[in-house]
């Protein structure tokens, strides 16, 4: 893990112990290295822009800043919130997500996080155990690899197939999984490929995960941001086939990534988490303990 150490100039530097830094370099890190080495004033078009608020044509709904301002001025929320989030926030998220599901989520299914990034980290921290591996899409979102590396979870990649609209190579998933595989990650709508999966493809993913006895981490941070006629179908629709951990945030759809509000939701209408091999990690108490560990 990272530690401060002195070198022979007496300067202190950060040393990583036990973390494979070659696999933990992020896109933002590379971009910042590049920008530091650009010495002329040419203008650049960034193709890696994930912040919708950077463009003035995209703004959030005007009711949102009013509501936040009202909440701040009321002084009602100046105290510590419960670790899993304010009940009214959890209820609002449960109601919002339930609109697209064939069943109703309860407040107990929802945990509020600091953006989707923390939801990813919480999900991987909960699944970590000696020898565990996780299946990630390639191309994918690098935070998963970074977080898995810090949790000592082995990463195995399955390809997304460009010639078929970046669908998941399910044969590869079946070949990669073994008894130590804890989950597969599905990013839909997808970053970086922009894929929007059909109901049928998500159903096939759910059935494959069910056969393999792994759960699905559904990253839906881009939920509802689709182009053309393709509807967004949440993975939680198949929660009766396979337990789904749905991760999301208000960053993209509401164009406020700086507000850092996300969620980690168990979409599991049949209570399969209760019988699943990761059961022990998924009790509410464990979640609270985990959050406390992450913050101290
Ligand atoms: C696929 C994916 N998941 C998660 C995140 C992180 O979302 P947040 O800004 O809410 O932490 C991003 C941000 O770009 C993303 O592209």
UniProtKB/TrEMBL annotation:
**Cofactor(s) listed:** pyridoxal 5'-phosphate
SUPFAM superfamilies assigned to the protein according to its UniProt record, in alphabetical order? PLP-dependent transferases (SSF53383)
Cite the GO molecular-function annotations of the record: L-tyrosine-2-oxoglutarate transaminase activity; pyridoxal phosphate binding
Cite the Pfam families for this sequence: Aminotran_1_2
* Domain Aminotransferase class I/classII large: residue ranges: 44-268
> Could you tell me the keywords of this UniProt record?
Aminotransferase, Pyridoxal phosphate, Transferase
Query: Does the keyword Hydrolase belong to this entry?
Result: no
One GO term of the biological process aspect: L-tyrosine catabolic process
Similarity section: Belongs to the class-I pyridoxal-phosphate-dependent aminotransferase family.
Name by which UniProt lists this protein = Aminotransferase class I/classII large domain-containing protein
Upper taxonomic lineage: Eukaryota, Viridiplantae, Streptophyta, Embryophyta, Tracheophyta
